[in-house]
Amino acid sequence: MHPVYITKTSTFLPNEPVHNDEIEQYIGMIGGKPSRAKDIILRNNGIKKRYYALDRQGNVTHTAYEMAVRAIEQLYDEDFNVETLELLAAGTTSQEMIMPSHAAQIHGEMGGKRDMEVVSFAGSCCSGMHALKYAFLSLASGDKKNAVALASERLSAWMRSSYFKKEYDDLQRLKEEPIIAFEKDFLRFMLSDGAGAFRLETKPAKNGLSFKINWIELTSFANTLPTCMYAGADYDASGKLRGWTYFPEDEWTTRTIFAVKQDTKLLGENIVKLGGKFFMEVVDKYSLKVEDVDWFLPHLSSMYFKPRIEKQLAEMNFNIPQERWFLNLPYVGNVAAASAFLMLDELARTKDLKSGQNILFMVPESAHFSYAFVFLTVC
User: Does 5-18+46-160+193-213 carry CATH code 3.60.15.10?
Assistant: First the structure.
């Protein structure tokens, strides 16, 4: 097995940051009225700013694959560019189309004369970590000499008020004060857009920081619990979750089948607990100790979960001191699969990292409860 290093990181965030009081200027108001849930959601999630690939009129300014290309281009230098890249591994929650795949669309947008292997991972927050692991194993096995692993999101595509117009109009005929279900309105104020990318090679960078990938661990608890977050699906009359092709075409809009929905009760009861269970398995496997972790980068969907994770770690006797935590959720937003990439890039740019320091990623995914832990060493 060859050693594998992240030799460069990058971030692309579209347009200017959007503050809390501006959100509905971009994604609109359902039924022309401010959301009743917005203030409660924002108070709990702790997000103050986020980025949208939209202008104030709700027009799309960047696609998910265009943002990915902008991030990739920042990884280029005199020794590495589109003509030398061997593998592109891409993850996303918000693929622009059913086909072609996300990575194929990115490759098409990149241009250049070189053909290359491309592989896509679609799902939710862990899809970026799946892309990273594929790239890591491809280099470690000797199959490739370099790769780019990335994640990009255009989650605002599912958040615009126009998307809910048909359902709202139908509800208005039935109720004096129609309200879009909380599980749909909730995520309109939780998610944002952007892209992050890592360049991987089998030797450290000639100049600047590199991060040796020690291990990447992923698991799924989908066999033990119901689905928690979903899009392009809904529950039928028997209570079974069905994909969009199961429903008549007119229900795609009247029920906003393609909206992102989340069971917040199921989320709150399980996301931290199951993450702790898997983390203990990882700790035992690698004999990991608190003193081994110099920087802890947890992907949080909401600051609501931070004290709960702290409590869980303390109960497991793995209490990571606050000064070793690094997260940027409040001023970057929840960019789903791209969030972990954005955290490492900002950490590398803003902190005085020392050779030999260790970085631990934690990436939970609530869709059907999956988790990723990644352990890096600065070199």
Answer: no
